[in-house]
Design a protein that fits this description.
elongated, 2 helices, single chain, alpha+beta, 4-stranded antiparallel β-sheet, 146 residues
């Protein structure tokens, strides 16, 4: 036997082999876990958008149930700051699910082309926008008539 060389025993791994196996296993694990991570991110975004659409729909329903004459006075420029979104009864949602949501409303009178600007408007376009951490995630428009 020559000096400087060790004999390889068939029953064990050398440190280098063990390290290579760990690297290969780590790469394989990352490849397997990546779709799950991406799926969790997509799922969370979907849940935020669904909740945002529900918040927009709920506020629009409140607007629709307001008398035509009061819509612009009560809702144009209405806004709820992040974490201060309210239910139909006016109570702020306390669940952490609503913590990063905010919403605002704009209402504009709409005149049809055959109407002159002299007659009272018969339509209002209400727009409700919902934001998550400052990014718009839902937008709902509705034309309301007298």
């Amino acid at each position: 036997m020559r000096r400087g060389f060790t004999r390889h025993t068939p029953g064990g791994f050398t440190l280098a082999e063990a390290m290579m196996a760990t690297v290969v296993l780590g790469i394989a694990a990352a490849g397997v876990l990546l779709p799950f991570t991406t799926g969790a991110i997509v799922r969370a975004e979907g849940m935020r958008r669904t909740l945002g659409a529900k918040l927009a729909s709920d506020l629009m329903e409140q607007i629709v149930n307001t008398s035509f004459e009061d819509i612009v006075n009560n809702y144009d420029g209405y806004s709820e700051a992040q974490g201060q979104v309210k239910d139909a009864g006016g109570t702020v949602f306390t669940s952490s699910s609503y913590a990063n949501f905010s919403r605002d409303v704009s209402c504009q009178y709409v005149y049809m082309s055959q109407e002159s600007g002299v007659v009272a408007p018969k339509f209002i376009r209400a727009t409700v926008r919902v934001y998550y951490s400052g990014k718009e995630i839902a937008n709902m428009n509705r034309l309301l008539g007298k």
